[in-house]
Amino acid sequence: MLLDIQNLTKRFGGLTAVSNVSFGVERGEIVGIFGPNGSGKTTTLSLIAGILKPTSGAIVWKDRDISTLTPFEVAQQGLVKTFQNPQLFPELTVVQHMRIACHLHVKRALGIGRLRTLFSGMPAELDRTLEHKIGQMLELCRLSSQRNDEAGALSYGGEKMLGVAMGMVCDPELLLLDEPASGLGHDEITNLDAVLRDLKSHGVTLCIIDHKVGFLGRLADRSIALHHGAVIATGKTEDVLANEAVVAAYLGKKHA
Amino acid sequence: MKYAIAVGLLLALVAPAVVHSDSILAIAIYGFMAASLAVSFNLIFGFTGQLSMFHAASFGVSAYVVTILVTTFKWNFWLAIIPALVVVMILSLIVGTICFRFKLKEFYFAVVTMAFSEVLRLITLNWNSVTNGSLGITVVDKPSIWTPSGSFAISSGVSWYYLTLALLVIVYIICHRILASWIGRCLAAIRLNDQLGETLGIDVFKYKLLSFAIGSVLAGLVGAFYGFYSGFVEPHYFSIPLGLDIIAMVLLGGVNSLIGPVIGALVLTALPHVIELSAELRIALYGSILIFVILVMPKGIVGLLTSRKHAA
């Protein structure tokens, strides 16, 4: 198993945001985590990404507990997270964002040899590889035509796609997407759907949280439903969506 | 811009052949040293987004260490620079580690670094046996360089002019190389959105510390020379007004550029001499310029020049 979440619990003072959550992610699959607002989805993702530290429980990544690592160490392990509200580097263009996101690439490729680049500049071959990769990723995320635009000028959907593109250019083994579809229009969701399917066909493992059941239902191989911080259903996406407890959590008992 | 810088450097190189006035040379020498300080400060402030108030302290500590080693312990000047820079590096690593581990940002970072700076100033002021307290230390020695025809003391205005110009060029090139490398991208990420940078795998703490330490050590390098030109070191070197002067230079010249601080430093060093002003008025002028720049041209002189070019 690529990622194994074991009895994860997070308390903020008296509030238990995530309670005893356990699930796993296998390589190559798309796992959806859904639940209504306040069900602990984003907290779970932040715990995995190292932004928050769990109160108890373990996050095992390739047989190693990573729950004490800082966000950048988690990213270096191959787990990259995108943000619910698009996070950008103001002033910079789309392609400059992508170059910054290539940090881990350069680090992996050159290691301590990066010191030499202070005198000689970046090796031309690596530069070409990175530019090619950036071009490919922008193409995949439908951002090629805006590569030299200031990222702040992108539409909301474009900003979200840039987040996905930046995450992808890090070459993650697992990409954690925090509500990628929220705030997007119908066309943008169709576009995102296609992009994520493309990514899957490239062998990327995805963990997506969203409360848009329809969007996740089409995409996820397997789903986990959260409610009040606890797992209420898990299994194949269509089974989870049909689960009575899940329907009740979304629509209230009366409609279940 | 590249050509403008090259032409500027060329003019600076031939200037002493044309200009023979000692006072103008002295202004240029102080200007070059101020510019070196401003360029190194901008690595921390403009490019990493950390408002360090420790810069004057790095400058002062190094000036004192070199002076004491040379005057009291009779060290060779060039050799004395090494321990001075090591001391500055250790101090900046300590201060930086404390500030960045506690994730101090913006105003809080400025206040805490200012406090460290004050501690060092008070130590210098009160450690009479070593630093000679508020009187400071008079420096009579001059650094010398070895040439095939024998050792040559750097005492004339022209030799100091070229020495400090070389210092500025070295500091400028070091900062330029750093910013053009992967480190520059990491620093930009930290300045613009450190949380996003961290999720992309950038060790924010390490790069903040790196930028702070490099900038401080470069300030130390300037400090090493300063006392030997001016002829004395005094606790005033650590003072907050000196730190504010550096900020004013950077803001006036242009925060997000390498050449901006050089222009700002040269202008602000020359200005009081061009329009003769008393010390009190000089500070008032600095303050007014700072307010004017922040309100009217937030990208400084360089920003103004480049935006004109884009418009045209």
Q: How would you summarize the topology of this molecule?
A:
The complex is a heterodimer of chains A (256) and B (312).
Chain A: E1 3-12, E2 15-25, E3 30-34, H1 41-48, E4 56-61, E5 64-65, H2 71-77, E6 79-81, H3 94-101, H4 103-110, H5 114-120, H6 124-140, H7 156-169, E7 174-178, H8 186-201, E8 205-210, H9 213-219, E9 222-227, E10 230-236, H10 237-242, H11 244-251
Parallel strand pairs in A: 3-8, 3-9, 6-7, 7-8
Antiparallel strand pairs in A: 1-2, 1-4, 4-5, 9-10
Helix pairs in contact in A: 3-7, 6-7
Chain B: H1 2-18, H2 22-44, H3 55-71, H4 77-101, H5 106-126, H6 128-131, E1 137-138, E2 144-147, E3 150-153, H7 157-180, H8 182-199, H9 204-230, E4 232-233, H10 240-253, H11 259-274, H12 279-296, H13 300-311
Antiparallel strand pairs in B: 1-4, 2-3
Helix pairs in contact in B: 2-7, 2-9, 2-10, 2-11, 3-4, 3-5, 3-9, 4-5, 4-9, 7-9, 8-9, 10-11, 10-12, 10-13, 11-13
Largest interface, counted by CB within 8 Å of the partner chain's CB: A-B, 31 and 22 residues
The biggest beta sheet of chain A is recorded as: 6 strands, mixed
The shape of chain B, in one word, is globular
Sequence of secondary-structure elements of chain A: EEEHEEHEHHHHHEHEHEEHH
Radius of gyration of chain A: 19 Å
**How do the SSEs of chain B run, as a string of H and E?**
HHHHHHEEEHHHEHHHH
Low-confidence stretches of chain A: none
What is this entry, summarized?
The complex is a heterodimer of chains A (256) and B (312). Chain A is an alpha/beta fold. Chain A contains eleven helices and ten strands.
Task: Please describe the structure with a list of short key phrases separated by commas or semicolons.
heterodimer, A: 256 residues, alpha/beta, Rossmann fold, 2 domains, 11 helices, 24% strand, globular, B: mainly alpha, two-stranded antiparallel sheet, 13 helices, 4 strands
Notes on the protein architecture:
With 256 residues, chain A is of the alpha/beta class. Chain A is built from 11 helices and 10 strands. In chain A, the strands form 2 sheets. In chain A, strands 6-7-8-3-9-10 form a 6-stranded mixed beta sheet, sandwiched between helices. A 4-stranded antiparallel beta sheet of chain A has the order 2-1-4-5, with helices on one face. In chain A, a hairpin with a 2-residue loop joins strand 1 and strand 2. Chain A is globular. By secondary structure, chain B is mostly helical. Chain B has helices spanning 2-18, 22-44, 55-71, 77-101, 106-126, 128-131, 157-180, 182-199, 204-230, 240-253, 259-274, 279-296, 300-311; strands spanning 137-138, 144-147, 150-153, 232-233. In chain B, strands 1-4 form a two-stranded antiparallel ribbon. Chain B has a two-stranded antiparallel sheet with strand order 2-3. In chain B, strand 2 (144-147) and strand 3 form a beta hairpin. In chain B, helix 2 (22-44) runs antiparallel to helix 11.
